[in-house]
Specification:
This protein is α/β, with parallel strands linked by helices. It has helices at 15-20, 54-61, 83-89, 105-115, 120-133, 149-160, 179-194, 206-212, 230-236, 242-253; strands spanning 2-12, 27-38, 42-47, 69-74, 77-78, 90-93, 167-171, 198-203, 215-220, 223-228. Helix content is 39%, strand content 25%. The protein binds adenosine-5'-triphosphate and magnesium ion.
Length: 257
Amino acid sequence: MIQINELTKIYKLSAKKMQELKTKQNTKIAVNNVSLEAKPGEIYGLLGPNGAGKTTTLRCVATLLKPTKGDIKVCGFDSVKEGSKVRDSIAFLTNEIKLDPNFSADYMFKFFGRLHGMSEQQILDRQKELFTVFGINDFKDKKIEELSTGMKQKAAIAVSLVHDPKVVIFDEPTSGLDIVTARSVTDYLKYLRDQGKTVIVSTHIMSEAEKLSDRIGVIINGQKVAEGTLKEIIQNNEATDLEDAFFKLYSKYNPEG
Ligand SMILES: Nc1ncnc2c1ncn2[C@@H]1O[C@H](COP(=O)(O)OP(=O)(O)OP(=O)(O)O)[C@@H](O)[C@H]1O
Ligand SMILES: [Mg+2]
């Protein structure tokens, strides 16, 4: 279970960043008063355009960023006060965190397994399952730096799941993957959902949000502007499909749009 309660995240901008963004303001509101809940046995899709605040939201949930305002509970644990308990309960995947390029997938998997306090046998059993699901066995001993983008992503996904966590937080998990590999990832996320895990996935791809999510939250300019099942979002916006609903919301909530 993930409970995000009135989350606001404001970044302080460096002088360089202010210049880059051509702004006189020294802060950026990346997430603006967002509340949402993702439940066990559910895939919650966080859908939003570039810069909407998806990664920032998920990084707050994963305890890597401290909320400016609001609070987050994961399996009942507070993301700030009980950070280590939250980290034990989650798998977190994001493009910004890379596996060490000098080590192999096999090494990283075992390393993180031990870090989570698993026995060698538990690690081996888990490795057999996940490396088979994601087709990693063929390249498990190669250095990460020698792998293709897709292979790296598959390795990162397997490593993130080593400890069989209750909550799965994946930021754009299929980015850079071909459709066959992307499908193996989304199929596995559905399998985890069916096992009763709580899954939250961010995406800017309409078709992915549509096919994968049990419920969708649309985030634009740091604000949650719509939420519901695919059907509800389409109906509430008097739209023909999700893309149509998204553009209606986008023109309403994006000041420059
Ligand atoms: N460390 C930072 N310092 C200052 N501003 C930041 C920082 N990280 C993100 N931002 C800004 O916060 C906003 C939200 O960024 P975020 O990365 O959460 O968006 P996103 O929805 O994940 O976008 P994308 O689809 O491009 O990954 C953007 O305007 C971004 O420029
Ligand atoms: Mg992002």
